[in-house]
Amino acid sequence: MAPLILQQNPAVKNTIALPFITIALQIDTTNISKAQIEQKIKLSIDKVENDLNLINGIPDYMVNPAVNQLRTIMNTLNYNANKKSVVIFLSPFVEKVFYLNFLIEEKVVVGEPLNIRELTLTKREEMKYLVLSLHRDQSFIYLGVGKRLSLIVFNAAEHIKSRFNTGKEKFLLHVENVLTHILKTYSLPLIAVGDEALLSLFKSISKNSKEIIQTVNAEADEENMSYVQQLVRPLIQDWEKIKEKYLLMKLDKALNNKKAKIGIDNVCKAAKEKRGKILIVEKDFQYPFRVADTTELMYANAVSANGSLLITDPVEEAIERVLGEGGNIEFVSSNALDNYMHIALIL
Question: Which CATH number fits domain 128-237: 3.30.70.3040, 3.30.420.60, 3.40.50.1970, 3.90.950.10?
Answer without folding.
Answer: 3.30.420.60
